[in-house]
Amino acid sequence: MVKLGKLSNLYLILVFVILYSPIAFLMYYSFNSGGTMHGFDGFTLDNYREVFQDRRLFIIVLNTLVIALLSSALATIMGILGSLAIIAVRKARQKSTLLTLNNVLMVSPDVIIGASFLIMFTALGVQLGFVSVLLSHIAFSVPITVLMILPRLEEMSPTLIDAARDLGASRWNVLTKVILPYIRSGIFAGFFMALTYSLDDFAVTFFVTGNGFSTLSVEIYSRARQGISLSINALSTLLFLFTIILVIGYYYLNQRQSRPKPEVH
User: Fold this and answer.
1) Are 51 and 57 in contact (CB under 8 A)?
2) Predicted structure pTM score
3) pLDDT digits (tens, 9 = 90+) for 168-183
């Protein structure tokens, strides 16, 4: 058992090394003054200054944040409504069908999803740009929020709702005073997961962007194709650190909500 535990720990360490070594390599050379990734000539912040002085890049960062925040908020609202609809279904077969339909976008390849959205927007005459990217991000974020919120709803005892109704609470009060506070941790989890997916998405966004509108992931890809520039390393490092901050923020909120409340005597 001890040997098995050591092997599992070594395997876990190896997995983390493989996953994070390229990111560490990229971050290391973002401070290189040599302009290449073949040798570290000296420490510099010029690559980061170049990123912050790029006005076009600043607009793209704003586009990315607006799309991520707006799509995550709308997807979370739709995820709450969808979870309530699924939990209200009594027949197991119908509920299983709804869950399967919800998970289609999560198991489908991103290239297929992006191409499908492109064909749909073209057929409907939707101009590619902000609206098409926003709708696409909402679409692939809704299943994520449902999967985060639905387990919390399933854990909730029906007697809580019955007790609220017996005390004269309206449907709106039951929703806002009983259901939403109970599933709050699932709502936060769904929102932060959708936000992370939106910030990192490239494949779907690449298909549906256009008319001068771009996001960070597409911009990084476009710049990488033009040649090696350490400003790409700096930009990617900033995006990675921002994602880490989101994960830490979600973990902190989740831990804070899960702390047992002190008993009042």
Assistant:
1) yes
2) 0.79
3) 888 888 888 888 888 8
